[in-house]
Amino acid sequence: MTLHENEIRVDEAAARSLLREQRPEWAALPVSPAGAGTDNRMYRLGDRLLMRLPRTPDNAKAVRKEQTWLPRLAPHLPCRIPEPVHRGTPGAAFPLAWSVYRWIDGDEAGPGSVSDRPAFGADLAVIVQSLHAVPLMGAARQGELSRYRGGGLRACDQWVGECFDDCGTIEGLDLDLERLRHLWQSALALPEPSGRQVWLHGDLKPSNLLVRQGKLHAVIDFGCLSVGFPDAEHSPLWDLPPGARQAYWEAMSLDEVTWSRARAWAVAVAVSGVSYYWRTYPRFVGECLSRLRAILEAAGER
């Protein structure tokens, strides 16, 4: 499945070729697909390793970012995060940087894996608070650590508006776009964020939260790692059940202005996802639509 115009094609044969070139001691291990997101393809390597190969040259920049910063962040966090064990370089079979990580057992956060939803929300809040408290260690909001989600909403108004317009042309899209656009525009009138900039994971959706024995065990995929204001960090909470969302809100002690800005970020990311991936990635579009419908439902209750 190709998602981007400049996507680099890769398969199990290419993955094995990279191993033969760079880590021959792993080349005989079983290689099997382990999922694919919007930015990377994954292959399980034996029982204990995971290969992660970026889809595009831009995604490859995030590979180096993870390799640099994840080992420095890990000691400060109360959960497992990906541990790079090989910095892959471009090869004959694949022209981009890539990584091998230690495999982390766990199930994607969801109704069948989370045993106590409020406890899950509170545990996620502890992890987020811990990440936001990590010293910047010389990092700054620049280059690959300056993703838009760590800044202000107003700078994104043009492209978000274009995504709304594009969604309006999708035949059969059953979604109250007018109400969602109102929530976005209302947040633009709020004060811009201020205060201390912090480390941001940037994409704490359920597929990046792993559960073991009913409890939150690990956070994965730090490709959106950045430094900035924390409002957008809270936006994936609308992917979680109301009980988890409420417990997170209370544990984080978020005020209404921060919550409204977080909701606007949730709208922006999901609307752009529907617009960009409508014809190529139905599963991801379904996740975006579920988030937007949860936002509309919650907005009607408050």
UniProtKB/TrEMBL annotation:
The lineage of its organism: Bacteria, Bacillati, Actinomycetota, Actinomycetes, Kitasatosporales. It holds the Pfam family APH. Residues 31-265 form the Aminoglycoside phosphotransferase domain. It comes from Kitasatospora purpeofusca. Signal peptide: none annotated. This is Aminoglycoside phosphotransferase family protein.
